[in-house]
Every structure is written in structure tokens, then in C-alpha cells.
Amino acid sequence: MPKQSVLSLPTEPPEQPVVAKDAATVLLLRDAGDGVEVFLQRRVTAMAFAGGMTVFPGGGVDKRDADASVSWAGPPPARWAEWFGCSEPVARALVCAAVRETFEESGVLLAGSGSSIVTDTSPYAAAREQLVSRELSLADFLAGEGLTLRADLLRPWANWVTPEQEPRRYDARFFLAALPEGQHADGRTTEAESSGWSRPADAIADAEAGRSTLMPPTWFLLDELTSCASVAEALAQERSVRKVTPRLVVDGDVVRVELP
């Protein structure tokens, strides 16, 4: 990963770093003719965090994401807690946030009714807007539509924490998911100026050529995906998730990102 320009970062971590907020991010995949593609969004430059960066869909956990009334199918929260090394309530909130944020930012809904998976999300367009505005919680949305959250469509993938020098920090858990059959990812979110599918290697090449900017976790995880020949191969991988906290080293007018 290349060096990045430094703005006003302290040279050393503060004695009391900002507490990292729990966040969930989803690497949404689909099979293409020449390999796996991943859904990416370029965030609006004015965004307070990662403005102008190319990222995966995701965001911070909402306190209502921990609602235990959510209809749930797949690995239980206790299992997710083991995978991510966190408490069961936090694990529940993370999975719910992953489903909610993916729907809000890309229109892809990882939910179903009975044994079926949603194939057409258009009937839920109004609910999507209400989720974005926080007029509606995920639990109330699913209950109102008779839907069940499909945790079995997600896989635990990684855990990255924002460096301690940063004033806005996230403890981000990354999930992997396949685009459900019949659904389409879109870019109808005010948080992104553009969205689309890209081969991981092409996304990295764009960053290397200066056509886009990637945060270290995004770059690293895209690089991991380049070894996957298909979505099925990616989903079948056995992952041991460990928490990664990069260190920022200020060197003159640039900052290096060092991984533990």
C-alpha cells in the first residue's frame, strides 16, 4: 500500500485514544465471466469519515440493532460472538447492522420468508428510506413485512480498528455475502457519489494509478479477494478473525501505515 498524505495527525498516539465505535461492513460479491466482482462505493467528499474514499457498504451500529426481537435464521448471535471475539449483544447488533447498512446503501436485502430469500426488493423502497432516516428500526421493518434476517447468508471475514491517532475511530467487523439471486445492487444513497461492481484487481489498479483512494483495510481485503476464483470459493473459506489495528507513522509530509 502506498504512503498517504498527512493532514494534522499527531506523531504519537494520544494517552487516551478516542473509543472506537462498533461498525459493520459487507463485502458483497457476485460471479462474473472473468472471476469475482465486489460492489464498491465512492463516498461523498464532504463525509466526515473517509470522504472521497472508495469503500464497501457499511456503517456504524445503531443502538436499536441489538433488538433481540429480530426474527433470525442462521448461526445464532452466540456463534458470531465467538467468531468476532465480542459479547453476544454486540454480535447481534453487528449482524443486524450489516444487513441494515447493506440494504440502506446498496438496496440488497439479506432476508427472506420461510426458506426463501427475497428476490425483489422494490416493494420495500419506502421502508428503505425510513431506515435511512431512522424513522424505522430493522426489527420493526422485518416484523412489519413478515421477513426473517438471514444470518446464514453472511460469513465472518475480518476485524480492523481505526488507528489510535485518528479523531474518529471504528471497530469495524467485515462480513462476506453473495448477491442474492434476482436482486440488484444500486447506488441510491446520499453517502456515495458513485457505485458499481469491480474486479478486486481492477479496484487496486485504479488506486495505484491515482484514479481512486482506498483505506488500508479496503486495499488489504481486496487483495485477499484476488485469490478467489468464484463466490462459492470465497464463501467456503475457513476464516480465523483477528483484530487488526494499524499504526500510523508520520514521516515529514506523509504518513505510513504499518500493520502489526
Automatic annotation (TrEMBL):
The keyword Metal-binding is annotated on this UniProt entry: yes
Gene3D superfamilies: Nucleoside Triphosphate Pyrophosphohydrolase (3.90.79.10)
UniProt domain Nudix hydrolase: residue ranges: 19-183
CDD domains linked to this entry: NUDIX_AcylCoAdiphos_Nudt19 (cd18870)
Segments passing through the bilayer: none
Protein name: NUDIX hydrolase
Domain of life from the UniProt record: Bacteria
Higher taxonomy: Bacteria, Bacillati, Actinomycetota, Actinomycetes, Pseudonocardiales
Cofactor: Mg(2+); Mn(2+)
MF (Gene Ontology): hydrolase activity, acting on acid anhydrides, in phosphorus-containing anhydrides; metal ion binding
Matching InterPro entries: NUDIX_hydrolase-like_dom_sf (IPR015797), NUDIX_hydrolase_dom (IPR000086), NUDT19 (IPR039121)
Keyword annotations of the record: Hydrolase, Magnesium, Manganese, Metal-binding
